[in-house]
Amino acid sequence: MPERTPETNVIDFRAAEQLLAARDPRGAVKLLDAVIAAHPESISARLLRARAYFMAAQLRSAEADFQMVLEREPTNAYAHFALARTLQRANRHDQAKRHFRLAAALDPRPEYVEAAGFDGEG
């Protein structure tokens, strides 16, 4: 297998974004695995792979990547929201609620506030 270059990683990342947009999450995961192997600290690659896992209904893998992002960026509202959706889909509603509320507290986007149940509170 040829050595990966920074350009190869960028090309694979962009191709993975396109695959995800085209609803091919498994193809995206394959490309992102190589990118993450080369750059394990990449938050953007982990977030994209977590989204791909979520779309492929690989909830444990999605949860693991979202958790890893939150370990590095505990104030990432999107990662809290996406983790909450993952937990909700896995019928872990109490854990999901905590992350929905954290997402809304960090970023009061309407969809975060609504999911957290804050919209009716005053």
TrEMBL record:
It holds the Pfam family TPR_17. SUPFAM superfamilies: TPR-like. TPR repeats lie at residues 77-110. It comes from the Bacteria. InterPro entries: TPR-like_helical_dom_sf (IPR011990), TPR_rpt (IPR019734). Keywords: TPR repeat. This is Tetratricopeptide repeat protein. It comes from Streptomyces silvisoli.
